[in-house]
Write a structure and sequence with these properties.
alpha+beta; 5-stranded mixed sheet; elongated
């Protein structure tokens, strides 16, 4: 089941034209169980696979791309506008057989699924942060002699900013123990 969460386009018109678009989809995988143990086992068995092949209860994938326009005056080339596109998918569990479940288990599931979604949205925020940094830093690049040199530097900077956010994302999971240190327990 796919549910579009957000499709937003924001055009900023300031002294430097910047544009950003993003699309985040939330997808669900079904789980069933009559106890917290069974639900945890179902998530471990059916949860989305990460890039390393490990299964997770929830998972976020994101991608950031950018494009820009340049202008030349004499032999000087500068970036005149920057556009970023962010796409992401958050995959979460959906408990499908809640009939007959105790009120306590239903409440614990509600709390757990809310914290899991919040944790995964934290992963997506790294993509938004990367896109914002790319827009800000590419438009601020000084003019260069010739456009090829500027374009090479701009693409290297964009890639480095994404790599920086990927490292911060890894630290986020390390520091939170994949959300467990923030109360993510069933």
């Amino acid at each position: 089941m796919r549910k579009p969460l957000l499709l937003a386009s924001l055009l900023l018109t300031a002294s430097y034209p910047l544009a950003a678009s993003e699309q985040l989809d939330i997808t669900y995988y079904p789980i069933s169980g009559k106890s917290s143990k069974q639900l945890l086992e179902a998530m471990q068995q059916h949860g989305p696979e990460g890039d390393d092949g490990r299964r997770f209860h929830g998972y976020t994938r994101w991608h950031v791309s950018w494009k820009y326009q340049t202008s030349s005056r004499g032999n000087r080339c500068s970036i005149t506008s920057v556009d970023t596109q962010v796409t992401g998918t958050i995959t979460l569990p959906q408990w499908t057989d809640t009939q007959g479940a105790t009120e306590d288990l239903l409440n614990r599931w509600q709390h757990y699924s809310s914290l899991l979604r919040e944790h995964e949205q934290g992963h997506y925020q790294f993509a938004l942060d990367a896109a914002a940094a790319i827009r800000q830093q590419l438009i601020a690049m000084p003019a260069q002699v010739g456009c090829p040199n500027l374009l090479t530097q701009a693409n290297q900077l964009g890639s480095a900013l994404i790599d920086e956010q990927r490292q911060r994302e890894l630290a986020y999971d390390r520091d939170t123990d994949h959300g467990r240190n923030t109360g993510l327990k069933l």
